């Protein structure tokens, strides 16, 4: 399972960075570190999986992956559905008729990202200090995205509502940080060693 997820995340991350190529070219500066949100999250989890396979852990990276995998996994699905629904409002018809095969592919892959963040919760080793650092970065990323307009390009039908999307994104960040805290710090949680699961 770990090897399968490693390769899925590795190649998915490469495709994700390619997906952002036009936006990365347009920004064309060190600000690009704030641009490719989803592939950065899955790339971080790819490294976490590689460490798990080596029976090692990196708490800060685990915290980053846990927060951002869930956040951007859910974020992308909601944005795709919202874009299709708004198209239906503006032009009539069924929202599903405005969804392309790439939308379904992206929804499936981003849904998998969110599930992964939860699935490996029992193996995470991060502490409060790691989550504080990741939480600060996540909120900074939101500020940069929606103050300097570096957020992922939105479906054209909802592009004018980026201020609403920004508020939603900030709320989702807080939810994701809270969920990551619950995964590790919930009462009665028994941390498992990933080494025991790797044969």
From TrEMBL:
InterPro entries the record matches: DUF1405
Keyword annotations: Membrane, Transmembrane, Transmembrane helix
Pfam name, any one: DUF1405
Keyword Transmembrane helix: yes
Segments crossing the lipid bilayer: 5-21, 33-53, 60-84, 104-121, 128-144, 164-185
Protein name (database record): DUF1405 domain-containing protein
Species this chain originates from: Novibacillus thermophilus
